[in-house]
Amino acid sequence: MLTPPLIPDITHKTVVFSGGVGAARFLEGLIQVVPDDTVCALVNTGDDIEMHGLHISPDIDIVLCTLAGLIHPTQGWGVVDDTDHCMHMLGKLGAPTWFMLGDKDMAFHIQRSALLGAGWHATHIAEHFRRSLGVTAILLPMTHDHVHTHIVTPTGTLHFQEYLVRDRARAEIRGIEYHGMATAQPTAYVMDALRTATGIIIAPSNPFVSVGTILALPGVRHQLMQATVPRIAISPIVGGAAIKGPAVAMLHHAGVEVSAYGIASIYRECIDGMVIDDVDAALAPRIAALGLKVCVTDTIMRDSATKQQLATTCLKFMAELQ
Length: 322
Hints:
The structure is a single chain. The protein is an alpha/beta fold. It has helices at residues 21-33, 58-67, 85-92, 103-117, 122-132, 160-166, 188-196, 211-216, 220-226, 247-254, 260-267, 284-288, 304-321; strands at residues 14-18, 39-43, 49-51, 54-56, 138-141, 148-153, 156-159, 175-179, 199-202, 231-234, 237-238, 241-242, 273-277, 293-297. The strands form four sheets. It has a seven-stranded parallel beta sheet, sandwiched between helices. The model has no long low-confidence stretch (mean pLDDT 97).
């Protein structure tokens, strides 16, 4: 019978606020240029959803599978060389199939649900999974409480996965809600990692439904603001467009400029420096006027080399801020 694993030392790490695909790709580069056991990913769980009686943690699994070398290379989610026999049979049995789960992918959700039922918490499960797959970087789910991001639309409120995956992000956004946040708490592991971090990076993830959910947890934003180590953010907006996901529509809803400057304005109280793409170099003076240092570089992670180069540049930038 499995027993919950001991959580390793999570102090004195490079801490990365992590959403899904963008964060996973950045982490993939980061562990190539620093010892991977010095990296700690604080991962969003606001995208979690229950499907087919199973607990699914999309961002945890995207980061986990990316670092394990199992991720589908073009999608950025799902397991490489997976099949979909189970989903086809579920469809025949009348189950919804809009949230595609591959057969190998399904194993994560089955085992996660079983371990939750056995009394394990999400940090124990992430730790067990990463060890099982040979991942050395630490993965910390942001909370053990149930927090679910919902999108308010003209026809009702949708779980974020319904909005994004089922409805292809077509609905007008009239609000973003974090259900369960009023009673949720960050884990003690998350707060310890932040208190003792040697540097903090906000990965190029959505500032509202990836990073925003982590920062909304009581005490997290305050701890980030109080940190005395270098804190930087990488813009997920390049040339006025999102690399992936619905960030543009959410920035419009929030009345924030759709640009690297807009992202900097969201994080300005929490960071010391902003990393922006070469195409946005003209925005550097405006971002600097916010009181932030600016690093202009190639932020598009096309392959292993560009992932490593971005990570190296970020580390050098943090050293300069130190």
